[in-house]
Amino acid sequence: MLRTIGRRLLLLIPTLFGLSVLLFFWVRALPGGPAAALLGERATPEAIERINEAYGFNRPLPEQYITWLGRLLQGDFGNSIETRRPVLEEFINRFPATIELSILALIIAVGIGIPLGYWAARNHGKLFDHISVGMSLLGITIPVFFLAFMLKWLFAVQLGWLPTTGRQDRGVDATHFTGFYVLDGFLTGEYDAAWNAFIHLLLPALALATIPLAIIVRITRASVLEVVNADYVRTGRAKGVSKQIIRNRFVLRNAMLPVVTTIGLQTGLLISGAVLTETVFAFPGIGAFLANAIFARDFPVLQGFVLFIAVAYALINLLVDISYSIIDPRVRIQ
Amino acid sequence: MTLVLTGCVQSQRDDTDTGDGDSAAPSDVNSTFVFASSSDPSGLDPAFASDGETFRISRNIFEGLIGVAPGTADPAPLLAEDWTTTDDGLSTTFNLKSDVTFHDGTPFNAEAVCANFDRWFNWEGLAATESLSYYYGALFGGFAGDENALYESCSADDELTATVNLTRAFSGFIPSLSLPAFAMQSPTALEEFGADDVGGSEEAPEYSEYAEGNPVGTGPFTFDSWSPGESVVLQAYPDYWGEQGQVQEVVFRVIDDPTARRQALEAGDIDGYDLVAPADTAALSDAGFNVMQRDPFTILYLGFNQAIEELQDVRVRQAITHAIDRDALVTQVLPEGTEVASQFIPPVVNGYNEDVTDYPYDPDRARELLAEAGYEDGFEIDFNYPVNISRPYMPNPEEIFVALSGQLEEVGITVNPVSNEWTDYLDLMRGSADHGIHLLGWTGDYNDTDNFVGVFFGSTSNEWGFDNPELFTALSEARQLPDVDEAGARYQEINEQIAQFVPGVPLAHPAPSLAFNERVTSYPASPVNDEVYNLIELSE
Fold first, then answer.
1. Are A202 and A195 in contact (CB under 8 A)?
2. Which of A102, A217, B297, B322 could serve as A270's disulfide partner, Cβ 3.0–4.6 Å?
3. Per-residue pLDDT for B436 more than 90?
4. A152, B268: Cβ pair inside 8 Å?
5. Smallest CA–CA separation between A182 and chain B, in Å?
6. How many CB pairs below 8 A link A and B?
7. Average pLDDT, integer, range A23-40
8. pLDDT for B200
9. What domains are there in chain B, each with its CATH number?
């Protein structure tokens, strides 16, 4: 098992190298450059030229790439052109916010999606099934930004229950050290701060969870339907195995394999979903920052962040593969 | 009583106190003012900034020698009580306000003034590039060792008298000093926190400790904290020389998305925000929010690229101008308070020409002119406009495009729409000749005509694609007139010269709107955004 994990991690190196080449040339193929974004209306050709000169953007691309790669190997990801802070520092400061948001979104998606999908399958063809399928179709098709605005309009503007933006109110006594505000609140015993951070997470997490939730409902439903009609379930029933054991060991456990794969894929996608959600909720995670970096042509941030996200994505996939062997002993990663 | 009051103001959540207190800070007023910014500041050192969000913050922390008369764009005394300039325009002596201290206790005096001027002049390397010291480079011609440098020297004549010497006269010198980029900063703090150490490598410039978290000025608020992506917080400076006002804490919350800003205001999460979308102003007003307009200090224009053959004929340029109904444009798609433009500078700017040649809306005349120029059946032309962007002078380019293209089609001009995202758009306008008629504009920085027409028409450019040596010379001469009135007269002539040449259509001076919570009863709206929050009045 450990050897497998080690090998998978080693395989990550050529993947990342390939990605670094692609990324580097791809971001530079974008029309416009950081100079135009920095200077706005004042971007005269001379001014753009001088800035490109200062930042080295006018040197041959292979030379720029080698300089960048050389620094990268020493752990130096460069500095953001917009904020002028080290890219790694910007990532570390913002990543916990996105993770916190993604975890809650995932809890919502899985916590609601699996039971809903299961019950829909068990009530196959009945009203509850139709409603679930209909709702999940709506969840997939409704644009996230529209949903986000409607959620805010209802819960923040009209009802005033939840905040519209941000991670935590000012004025709440909060000590931050892990970067995960809810966790920080629990660790320090500042439960008010934890609660405050939690209610800030709710709306963005709901918005972010919609698509994965809808997909999980559909996959769980389909998968359970398939397993429920399998021969071994029928045999089990015929032999008088208890309903509970049938449900938990025969059906759910076997139906979970495709669901786990889906959850893994969706977890990776949460990060890209966060780009939109974080922008709409002014939530200071990597998503909003990355969206701005694309707009500002902040090359070092684009390159660095996408690499970090790729690593995170690869690690999540690895975890999914490991969890296969736990759920299904037939699957051996060897 | 005072003690109770102070405590109440600082905790800002305690509303049980019913002290009758002084009128400046009624005890039941929440003295924290939360304003939504559209982005983080680019840094906290205004000398290394040129963006509005940075200046919005630094105007509250710092003050310059020269300020702005409230509600206008005109220079007024601030840290300099008065000043005299020699007839040749080369030497200006400033008499400084006494008993002013920086937030770190450093006295503000003539030495501090000279330290700031010398600091700017002596920047080198990355510090002396556009991405950092844009305004100094642009207005002071260059740095130590540059032939073109405007600044010569500064001398502290006595504690409160400083003289600045220039190498040549510059009519914009005094007004330009009202820019936050030239605010006075504490020499002690600048040195202690290595303000000029914009280190890192060339490819990866890094801000100094000063610009990251230790800005020190003389303004009514001191810097408290900056959480990137979240907020910047300022606190009232108890030893401020002027009026302290009601606001004790200012929070600039970063909310990137315009709709999210509106919702945050509606939900009561913020007290106000800037650049309200034209479509939102009426709804917010009706819902009881205070919506106010700044006097416009902007110009939106339709530019002509004379690299296009048809546009080289002045009759075609006049025809397009006659084809455009600016009144309809302003009433249909631009925000309330917008004024119709007749020239490329707003009315409050020195050199505005009341009698400039105008080309009123007259589609018949437009068709005649086109026929005279040999285009009886009209012609086809690219119309460039940006998308997904809102600028103070152009809140809704897509709608402006639709309105104008309809008017052009009326007179037989076939419009071929070309849209781009903002940075690509700028690149296309400034970096290539591959564009036709196009939407662009400008928001003035301070009361200087050259800051408008000089920027647009001072030399050949890809954007306009013409070579008009007479105009270039006139602009460069006007720039060097030391006397403001004399310069004003010259600029009136130049504005007429531009009107005859018709390089584009000055469309409108859109007024940027702000929206506030009901409790904000007074806000010092300024055409040049010189808004300092000690002048805000709150009712609850």
1. no
2. A102
3. yes
4. no
5. 17
6. 162
7. 77
8. 63
9. 1-40+228-294+512-540 (3.40.190.10), 42-220 (3.90.76.10), 298-509 (3.10.105.10)
